[in-house]
Write a structure and sequence with these properties.
By secondary structure, the protein is mainly alpha-helical. Helices cover about 85% and strands about 0% of the residues. The chain has a single domain, classed as Growth Hormone, Chain: A (Up-down Bundle).
Length: about 400
């Protein structure tokens, strides 16, 4: 991990991700409870989550297009500054319905940050080192979510306002880091050959479709997290605000520690095989969550599942980067994120009525959905890897035949 951080640009992205997502983790811990404290009903909570996801989905491709044409740094700066302003507006809500509008703008701003950052990482490293680079970036990202929820739970005990004010400060500091340390470089081959139709074909090749499918299943949890997870932890498992924050940190800690190792594995072994094995290993955790009657079991499950996910995440990120044309990396990353947002939107919409029937049903539905997409997407990635190896062998044989012919 430390060798990759010698790259000044990656260091800037990592530090900015840590600061920004510390703020995001703080707010995630208390947002639903904050809306509840201001008279928001379950319908308002669901509508605000849906507004965020719809706006985030709608703005993914435009932000990706801007990142390819305008530059990664400019998009990152604009997105971080917008998120800082929106975090402060939470303290000025005139009515519960305003949360829905606020989350709409929040979703539009949030769509800019992660795809542009991931595209920048792909620009900075060759394929044989991208697993480690993404592992390092994800470690800092996870570290933000490790610190953020626990800090948010602690500050919420003082007052909800302190959570949002600190989130504003952290996002502003992220913008300053990007402005000071990330070079103002233009994306490689941003106006590469190929019109819009050619571009869409490049965005929908089988290797990328497989990654998009996995992103959809992966983000089902995000939909549950944005609408129901705090209520599940609070009302069915009896967790305090501080314990809810610790529970989120229990997910982030193994990811922070182990994802650099996952990145090294992604550079050495088949990424499709890693995704399949460690993706399927997560499925029993959903059964554990549905059966759990104490917060301790959930914390243990989060730790174990996050350890498996620490291998899947950099393998999938490196696969997406390898499958992306250089001039369209921003758009590929945005499409990849947009498919995840569709999964989160599906989760937020479908899990609320299931939760009303029985709080265990959303957890079981997530496990089934994630298992199906891991199987389908993982085998598709394995297939593309085998095709790539066959092409490499064929080129080597042709080169050897040409060399023999030249000697004769």
């Amino acid at each position: 991990m430390f060798s990759t951080l010698r790259n000044r640009s990656l260091l800037a992205l990592c530090l900015a991700a840590f600061s920004a997502y510390t703020g995001a983790g703080m707010v995630t811990t208390v947002r639903v409870l904050f809306i509840r404290s201001h008279g928001g009903s379950l319908a308002i909570i669901s509508a605000s989550a849906t507004a965020f996801l719809v706006a985030n989905f709608a703005c993914q491709y435009p932000w990706g297009w801007l990142a390819d044409r305008w530059g990664r740094k400019q998009v990152l700066l604009l997105g971080l500054l917008a998120q800082a302003a929106i975090s402060g507006l939470y303290l000025a809500v005139p009515s519960p319905a305003f949360f829905v509008v606020l989350r709409l703008f929040d979703g539009a701003a949030a769509a800019s940050v992660l795809p542009a950052a991931r595209a920048a990482v792909a620009d900075l490293f060759s394929d044989e080192h991208r697993g480690r680079a993404y592992g390092t970036f994800t470690a800092f990202f996870n570290c933000g979510f490790l610190v953020g929820p626990a800090l948010g739970g602690f500050l919420a005990g003082i007052g909800f306002a302190s959570v949002f004010l600190v989130a504003v400060a952290l996002r502003l500091s992220s913008a300053l880091l990007i402005a000071a340390l990330l070079p103002n470089t233009r994306p490689a081959a941003a106006s590469a050959a190929g019109g819009d139709h050619s571009g869409w074909r490049e965005l929908t090749r089988l290797p990328l479709l497989a990654a998009y499918l996995i992103a959809f299943g992966d983000y089902l949890w995000i939909g549950f997290d944005m609408t129901l997870a705090p209520l599940w932890l609070r009302h069915h498992l009896g967790a305090t605000l501080l314990l809810i924050g610790i529970t989120y940190s229990a997910w982030a800690l193994p990811g922070t520690l182990l994802v650099p190792l996952g990145g090294r594995l992604a550079d050495r072994f088949s990424r499709g095989r890693l995704i399949l094995v460690f993706g399927l290993a997560q499925l029993p955790m959903y059964l554990l969550y549905a059966a759990a009657h104490s917060i301790g079991l959930v914390i243990a499950g989060f730790c174990l599942q996050a350890s498996f996910y620490a291998v899947v995440s950099p393998a999938l990120d490196a696969h997406v980067a390898r499958s992306s044309p250089p001039g369209r990396r921003g758009r590929v990353q945005s499409t990849y994120s947009a498919c995840g947002i569709i999964g989160a939107l599906a989760g937020a919409s479908a899990f609320v009525p299931l939760y009303a029937i029985d709080y265990r049903l959303p957890l079981l539905a997530q496990g089934m959905g994630y298992g199906m997409v891991i199987l389908a997407g993982g085998f598709a990635i394995l297939l593309t890897e085998r095709r790539e190896r066959t092409k490499v062998i064929d080129r080597q044989l042709l080169s050897e035949d040409a060399a023999v012919a030249a000697l004769q």
